[in-house]
From TrEMBL, chain A:
Residue spans crossing the bilayer: none
Entry protein name: Glycolate oxidase
PANTHER family linked to this entry: LACTATE UTILIZATION PROTEIN A, UNCHARACTERIZED PROTEIN YKGE
Database matches in InterPro entries: Cys_rich_dom (IPR004017)
Record-linked Pfam families: CCG
Lineage: Bacteria, Bacillati, Actinomycetota, Actinomycetes, Micrococcales
Residue ranges constituting the Cysteine-rich domain according to the UniProt record: 3-85, 140-224
Signal peptide: none
From TrEMBL, chain B:
NCBIfam families cross-referenced by the UniProt entry: LutB/LldF family L-lactate oxidation iron-sulfur protein
Residues of the 4Fe-4S ferredoxin-type domain: 324-393
Organism listed in the record: Arthrobacter liuii
Keyword Translocase: no
Record-given protein name: Iron-sulfur cluster-binding protein
From TrEMBL, chain C:
Residues covered by region (Disordered): 92-112
InterPro entries on file: FTHF_cligase-like_sf, LUD_dom, NagB/RpiA_transferase-like
Ranges of biased composition (kind: Basic and acidic residues): 101-110
Entry superkingdom: Bacteria
Ranges where the LUD domain occurs: 41-217
Name this polypeptide is given: LUD domain-containing protein
Length: 267, 505, 219
């Protein structure tokens, strides 16, 4: 299968290791990964902040990058950005009366998957240890991000994959379904409430005794990790793609930055 | 009449207790500082959340009931003029009298007039969001009419000269000891040995109100539902104060928003399953009363209904936002909301707090009224409210819609664009092209320098300072993924491989 | 323009996009699969959960049950249309005399012709009524003001409500029950004694409505 990677802007710029891990996982399963180079961002920050007009070119760019590239399915290591592509893009196109863009956005959305969704539903991964060689001998807790949980209905796909990683010790996160308080510009506009939510999330993470907190969204992990770091906590965050990509031979460190080298894409 | 046809009419916004007097972040900052409040709210919202989940998961057809409830309300909005006329005809035929009120002021003066006509200067009241919204009690007081709230929580709030902070449990922000103290301080003849046991406090309220119920000549209520095909009104309650008010007085005045209609008797079977489980987390609330106009020999013989617009027609005109009017005031959204849980209801200013309030208040008043434009931002968009809503109001989508209404309302009006405006414009430029984002990413090493040896950024200027008030930012990587990919995938002629037309020469 | 016309004009204006009124999907349950003893068992379970007192008795034992529940009452009220036979256990002096031979002096009759005043109702200890229909799944009893239930005030003001539910009147779920009654009558749906959860969400039974609810299920 030819899989187009939508890295998402935050992973591209801040957490490239997460995107490299995603590539690694997919190539390990024997698939070809392509990176449509026109891609930038899903535009969710603009939409969710009310800047619909400013979101239009961002959405149009994403649609242009992904409706011309030659691939079977697209994948992103983010529930939130995939939800935006699927649900917000057609709405943004509609809001500016561009019916052609709306149709193209809908088509792109239909082909776009969140990573765990692709692995479980399309690629049939049921045992990460056996099928991906995933090995990560650490005590880990898992935060299911809101948009993956409620907009994409990912259910237990991510935690099921994590549970099958060899060597992992998965500690249940109390009040896991509660928002970490990120919410994009909410974290700045309503910094006090956001911080109060984060405080409770960080307390819950620490109560598990885990070395790190994982999840499927780099933005939420940056938020939780930023709070833990500010507290001086040794607990860090790491995207689940990096845990799945970690093997006995190439172990991801708890601090992130798995050393991943991929073969050159063959065309 | 004909002069109105085809003319674009301005929306008629609502008035009364619908406004955030100060911006949400400011109010939230103050409320967050009250540790007792946060403890009370955390305890209460978690208790009711668990109860709701238990009784909802008991029903095999909960989702089907939600689908039906949502469609019924959608249908009500689409057919509202016709259903209002049908209701009016039926209610009137059964001896009820209908009054129409454009706004809070008109509704208040109608109610006061009806009370004056009876010669009474005291009324008993059933908890009602509509009368809270129009500020009826305050108005009646000015007119020399005393209104006694009879719902326990409303009584607590009234005795404390406080404001409700929750739709269902107006005194949710008070714990038992605080309530005991309010009773001792404000309730005439309260037993000085009163304990803080909820059952003891409930009995004190019973003693306090019993004489009022038995002698009141006029009652004022809201209504949960109105059935168009029969002219029937319904009040859903727990304590029996509602039954007292609806049954014993000679005159009953009900104030109800125009959106509360249900088309048929059959629709009640849907809503009476959705509402109790969503609101109190019970299979059924203790008491529901239904009355159709006047029944000879049973209950009040003077029955009035004030139908209230107060901004509802304006909310209805917003195609994206109109489904906020589907709300049945169950409060499930606020009980699951992580923002409400921490700030409480007072931070929202309006009678309607929580996620529903954050959309309903600005829809009723217009986004530009007072500080109501800060309300749609009072959400992390986590979506818990949408999942809990028994009539499937897509609150997160409406929040986002109203944010864009807010942003658009300011376009071209401000002399100097805000930091957010500038940032969003710049981000739109950078994020609408892979090449431009790639260029910006070339600056990542600068961020590494800024982060210093700790590899974290701890202080940012301007609005981004909101982030660094409680969060660090990690040092950016030396190289973006895009860069890494391009280098890894260089083709023999030394240009990066392309799978996208934008990169083609 | 009158407020009425003004508001209706505003609403019509607000709907100028002519939104569609969708078909209502009624995929939810319209009837339960339960009958007979299962219905009774479920109703009892729900009522007990609400802290109501429940007894399931044979129809013939209803009078004795009522008599025993009223033992401590100084006075009680009944609606004029209540089944006389149900009160048989109270008449005749309680020593096995013929039913109806001597009317129980504690009884107050409420009828449309001679309704009790509110003050009088406040002075009685208990009320006995029949019921229109009950919902097993939610533990709800519906009164519709029929002669055997009386006007709403009599089942409200006295502090102890004894309510008889015939087994045949038990429906499984709410839609079945609502189909059996006339919605334009004055209706009270009762699910347990009055209660409040207004203080810390802790449920307390007994506020303004009857603090004691005794349900007699007659089969």
């Amino acid at each position: 299968m030819r899989i187009a990677l939508f890295a998402t802007c935050i992973v591209d710029a801040m957490y490239p290791a997460t995107a490299r891990a995603t590539v690694k996982i997919l190539e390990r399963l024997g698939h070809e990964v392509v990176f449509p180079s026109g891609q930038a961002c899903c535009g969710q920050m603009h939409v969710n902040s009310g800047y619909l007009k400013e979101a239009v070119p961002v959405v149009a760019n994403h649609v242009a990058a992904f409706d011309t590239a030659d691939y079977d399915v697209a994948v992103a290591p983010s529930g939130s950005c995939v939800a935006s592509v699927k649900h917000q893009h057609p709405m943004v196109a509609r809001s500016c009366g561009d019916t052609a863009l709306e149709a193209r956005a809908t088509a792109v959305g239909a082909k776009t998957y969140e990573l765990s969704e692709l692995l479980v539903d399309v690629l049939g991964v049921t045992d990460a240890g056996a099928q991906l060689g995933s090995y990560f001998p650490h005590r880990v807790t898992y935060h299911p991000s809101c948009h993956g949980m409620r907009l994409l209905r990912l259910g237990d796909r991510q935690s099921r994959l994590l549970r099958t990683v060899q060597g992992i010790e998965l500690a249940d996160l109390p009040e896991a379904d509660q928002c970490c308080g990120f919410g994009g510009t909410f974290s700045m506009k309503n910094a006090d409430v956001s911080s109060a939510m984060l405080q409770d999330k960080a307390d819950n993470v620490r109560s598990t005794g885990a070395e790190l907190c994982t999840g499927g969204d780099a933005s939420c992990l940056m938020h939780i990790g930023g709070g833990l770091s500010r507290e001086g906590s040794p607990v860090t965050t790491l995207h689940l793609a990096e845990i799945l990509a970690s093997t006995m031979a190439e172990q991801a460190s708890v601090a992130g930055e798995v050393r991943v080298s991929t073969g050159k894409a063959t065309r | 009449m004909s002069t109105f046809l085809g003319m674009p009419s301005l929306p008629a916004f609502g008035s009364g207790n619908l406004f955030a007097g100060e911006s949400f972040p400011k109010a939230a900052h103050r409320e967050l500082g009250n540790a007792q409040l946060r403890a009370n709210l955390g305890h209460a919202t978690h208790t009711i959340r668990d109860k709701r989940i238990n009784v909802v998961s008991e029903l095999p057809d909960w989702e089907q009931l939600r689908d039906a409830g949502s469609a019924i309300k959608q249908s009500v909005m689409a057919r509202l003029p016709e259903l209002l006329e049908q209701f009016e005809e039926n209610f009137t035929a059964r001896g009820g009298v209908i009054h129409w009120a454009r706004d809070a002021k008109e509704a208040n003066s109608i109610v006061a007039g009806l009370i004056r006509d009876t010669g009474e200067t005291e009324v008993v009241k059933i908890k009602s969001m509509a009368t809270q919204e129009i500020g009826l009690n305050e108005y009646l007081e000015e007119q020399g009419i005393e209104a006694f709230e009879t719902d326990l929580a409303e009584l607590i709030v009234q005795l404390d000269h406080d404001k409700p902070s929750h739709i269902l449990v107006p005194a949710i922000h008070k714990n038992r000891t605080e309530i005991r103290d309010i009773f001792l301080r404000e309730m005439p003849g309260a037993d000085p040995d009163l304990t803080n046991e909820p059952s003891v406090l409930a009995m004190a309220a019973r003693e306090h109100l019993r004489r009022k119920f038995l002698t009141a000549k006029v009652a004022v209520s809201g209504a949960n539902f109105a059935l168009a095909d029969s002219g029937t009104l319904a009040v859903v309650e727990s304590e029996g104060n509602g039954r007292m008010c609806l049954t014993l007085p000679e005159t009953l005045i009900t104030v109800m928003g125009v959106e509360k209609l249900l088309p048929t008797w059959q629709d009640l079977e849907v809503f009476m399953q959705l509402l109790p489980r969503s609101s109190t987390g019970e299979r059924m609330n203790p008491y529901t009363s239904l009355w159709t106009g006047v029944t000879e020999g049973d209950g009040p013989q003077n029955v009035h209904l004030v139908l209230l617009d107060n901004g509802r027609s304006a909310a209805l005109a917003d195609e994206m936002g109109r489904s906020a009017l589907h709300c049945i005031r169950c409060s499930a959204c606020m009980n699951v909301c992580p923002v409400y849980e921490r700030t409480g209801g007072h931070a929202y200013g309006s009678t309607y707090p929580g996620p529903i309030g954050a959309i309903l208040s600005p829809l009723l008043t217009g986004i530009e009224a007072e500080e109501n434009n800060s309300l749609p931002y009072a959400s992390s968009l986590c979506g818990a409210c949408y999942d809990a809503c028994p009539v499937k109001i897509n609150i997160p989508d409406i929040l986002v819609h109203l944010r864009s209404v807010d942003v658009d309302s300011k376009r071209g009006k401000k002399k100097v664009p805000s930091q957010m405006d500038v940032g969003m414009k710049a981000a739109s430029w950078a994020l609408s092209s892979g090449k431009r984002l790639g260029l910006v990413e070339k600056g990542l090493p600068l961020g590494r320098i800024a982060a210093g040896p700790d590899k974290k950024i701890t202080k940012l200027p301007g609005i981004a300072g909101g982030w660094t008030q409680s969060r660090d930012i990690p040092a950016p990587p030396a190289q973006s993924f895009r860069d890494w990919w391009a280098k890894e995938h260089q083709t023999p002629d030394n240009t990066p491989s392309t799978n996208n037309k934008e990169a083609q020469p | 323009m009158s407020a009425r016309d003004d508001i209706l004009t505003r609403i019509r204006g607000a709907l100028k996009d002519s939104p569609e009124a969708p078909e209502i999907p009624r995929e939810y349950r319209s009837a339960s699969q339960l009958d007979g003893d299962a219905l009774i068992e479920l109703l009892v379970d729900r009522l007990v959960d609400y802290k109501a007192q429940v007894a399931v008795v044979a129809e013939a034992e209803v009078p004795a049950r009522i008599a025993s529940l009223l033992e401590g009452a100084r006075t009680y009220v009944v609606p004029a249309g209540l089944d006389d036979g149900w009160l048989a256990g109270l008449d005749g002096g309680g020593d096995g005399g013929a039913p109806g031979s001597r009317r129980d002096s504690r009884r107050r009759l409420d009828s449309p012709a001679q309704p009790l005043t509110v003050a009088e109702l406040d002075g009685v200890d208990a009320v006995v009524t029949s019921s229109a229909v009950a919902v097993a799944e939610t533990g709800t009893i519906l009164l519709d003001g029929s002669p055997n239930q009386g006007r709403r005030a009599i089942s409200l003001v006295p502090d102890h409500h004894i309510c008889v539910v015939r087994a045949a009147d038990i429906a499984g779920i709410l839609p079945e029950a609502l189909r059996r009654i006339d919605g334009t009558r004055p209706i009270t749906m009762i699910s347990g004694p009055s209660a409040t959860s207004d203080i810390e969400l802790e449920r307390v039974e007994g506020v303004h409505g009857p603090r004691r609810l005794d349900v007699i299920i007659a089969r």
